[in-house]
Amino acid sequence: MVVVLGIMSLTATVGAAELPALPPLMISELQLSGLNANGATDGQQEFVELYNPGTGRLDVAGWRLEYLSAAHTGVGAPTRVLAEINGVVDPFSFVLMGPAGLADADASWSPPSSASGQLAQGGGHVRLVDASGKVVDLVGWGSGSVIGDWTKVAGIPAGQSAQRVLPHNDGLAGAAEYRVSPEISPTGGGLVIEPHLVHDCSLRLSEIMPNPAGADSGHEYIELYNPTEAPQPLADCALRIGDAADVIDLPDLMVMPHGYITVGDDVGFSLSNVSGAIVWLLGGSFQQSVRYADALQDDQVWWLQNGVWAMSRTGTPGAANELQPEKTPPTVLAAVHLPDDCPVGKERNVETGRCRNIPAVSTTEPCGSDQVRNGETGRCRAITATGTIVPTACKPGQERNPVTNRCRNIITTSAAPKPCPEGQVRNTETNRCRKQGAASVALAKVEDVSSGGQAGIRWGVVSVAFAGLVGYALYEWRQEVINILQRHQSKVSKRRLHWKFWQERGTITNK
Fold first, then answer.
1. Which residues pair with 408 in a beta bridge?
2. Residues whose CB is less than 8 angstroms from the CB of residue 62 and which lie 6 or more positions away in sequence, other chains included
3. Alpha carbon of 174 to those of 128, 138, 486: distances in Å?
4. DSSP string covering 33-78, please?
5. How far is CA 433 from its chain centroid?
6. Which H or E run contains 494?
7. What's the fold here for domain 26-192?
8. d(Cα 175, Cα 156) in Å, to the nearest integer?
9. Among candidates 23, 53, 19, 285, which has minimal Cα distance to 136?
10. What is the sign, positive or negative, of the torsion defined by CA atoms of 275, 270, 264, 218?
11. Where are the beta strands (DSSP E) in 401-501?
């Protein structure tokens, strides 16, 4: 005969007028035994389901699920430890625990030593404690004793489970209440195994680069800062982008006191360029979240400076967040054409700017041991025993010129010069004969007839005549004279330009 049991609601028994507040992780469903295919009781079909009613992730590293016998008073060591828990429970998520082999279980306990299982059908208690040993939640059933203000269910038949009325369910009415139902619903998957989050993260978010110029992949980064006086392990911290994404483990590195470290996107995150995202830094009981601004431009960062998060036009990865000076474009100098070097054996003429052969430096042979070089003539001459210079004796009919120290013919004033041939006249300066021109004859004639006061008139006439000749010549040759002057002026201008060019180049210096 198959007996179908309807849903039976049992009101929990409490030991105080005021019920305890909801725990951060509660025992949400409990089954002591199931039914096999023949309808017989199977004590190994047992499980305990936990639920996180909070809005944040809960670190449960080091927590334990324990079994207490029916007579246990709740004080001291448990009857046995069912399972140890390590990891983080996501918000509004379930954790399922049971014997090894239970489908979808997040944590398992050893197979029961008997067919009755680890949880006694007649009565007992399940207790959840945190890493410090504090009781987080406890529920008893059947013949189990009442412990403090914790809930106790009258009994849980085989094939049914005691299900807690969760905060979002109707009918809670502020009480910790269970109901027994054959519609069992073991649910798990909410436990994220993160053993590195046992310790609190001591680092802090300091800078976020979501939109580097060019390709984002490989250039996005999140900067962390160590505000303490001791080195801190990066592995104690984890990152999460958004509220529902996976937690990202960080490498096992040390961050020096008051030091900075940059975590690149190669660890497994991607930051949105269009809309700002929430960056979470997690570790133990520590949580920090920062939302960066929407639509940051290329190379703009979201950083913390003087306790305020704001946008900066450029980042300082791995260093303190300090404003950088504006970048000024480099000054572009006007191109200057520099002449090529002259070939070997040539030099540049400073006047023309062209290459010319380097003049050979003449060398003179040294004078003899009894000679000295004349500083004026550059020639060697003999030295007397007393150290005075003895010039060579002049030839007969010559004398030594006291100015040049050279020999010259002796001019005798007594000797009368030979008369000049006809048509020539003696030059009074050189004492040589020269041809006599028409003007000279005319002047001679004028000189011959000149006398007394007429000499001034004569020379005045000559000066006027000479000036007229010069004026006439300039008039006749005026164009040629102008051309000569223009060519001379052009040469002078070019030399000045060359001189100025090489002076600016530093080749010519004023001394």
1. 399
2. 84, 85, 86, 130, 131, 198
3. 21, 17, 117
4. -EE-TTS-EETT--EEEEE--SSS-EE-TTEEEEEE-TT--S-SS-
5. 97
6. helix 478-505
7. Immunoglobulin-like (2.60.40)
8. 20
9. 23
10. negative
11. 407-409, 424-426, 433-435
- For the chain, the maximum distance between any two Cα atoms, rounded to a whole number of angstroms, is 187
CB atoms under 10 Å from CB of 128, counted, come to 23
User: Distance (Å, rounded) from C-alpha 418 to C-alpha 433?
Assistant: 10
Q: What does the alpha-carbon distance between residue 258 and residue 228 come to, in Å, rounded to a whole number? A: 6
Among 186, 139, 182, 154, CA closest to 35: 182
Give residue for tokens 């239970």. 102
Looking at the domain 195-312, which fold is it? Immunoglobulin-like (2.60.40)
Q: How many CA atoms lie within 13 A of 273 on its CB side?
A: 13
Locate 204 and state its tokens: 């802090």
| End-to-end Cα separation, the chain, in angstroms | 131
Amino acid occupying residue 494: K
Per-residue pLDDT of the chain (511 residues; tens, 9 = 90+): 333 333 233 333 333 333 446 789 999 999 988 888 888 888 888 899 999 988 888 888 889 999 999 999 999 999 999 888 888 898 999 999 888 777 778 887 766 655 678 888 899 999 999 988 999 999 999 999 999 989 899 889 988 999 988 766 655 444 457 888 899 989 988 888 754 445 788 999 999 999 999 898 999 999 999 999 999 999 889 999 987 677 888 998 999 999 999 999 999 999 998 888 899 998 877 889 999 999 899 999 999 988 899 999 888 999 998 865 555 555 555 555 667 788 888 888 888 888 888 876 656 778 887 788 887 777 887 776 555 566 778 888 888 888 778 888 887 655 567 788 888 888 877 778 888 765 454 444 444 444 445 666 777 788 888 888 888 877 877 888 788 888 877 777 777 777 677 676 665 544 4
Tell me where in the chain the CATH 2.60.40.1260 domain(s) lie.
Answer: 26-192
Show Cβ contacts of residue 306 under 8 Å, excluding neighbours closer than 6 positions: none
Phi, psi of 26, rounded to the nearest 5 degrees: -115, 155
Pairing of strands 47-51, 94-99: antiparallel
Question: Is 442 in a helix, a strand, or coil?
Answer: helix
The continuous run of DSSP H or E covering 161 comes out as strand 161-164
Counting DSSP H helices and E strands in the chain, the numbers are 3, 35
CA 352-357-361 angle, 5° bins: 120
Q: Which residue has the tokens 């029961």?
A: 112
**Residue owning tokens 């106790």:** 152
| 0.70 surpassed by pTM | no
Token pair of 377 as six digits: 């003539």
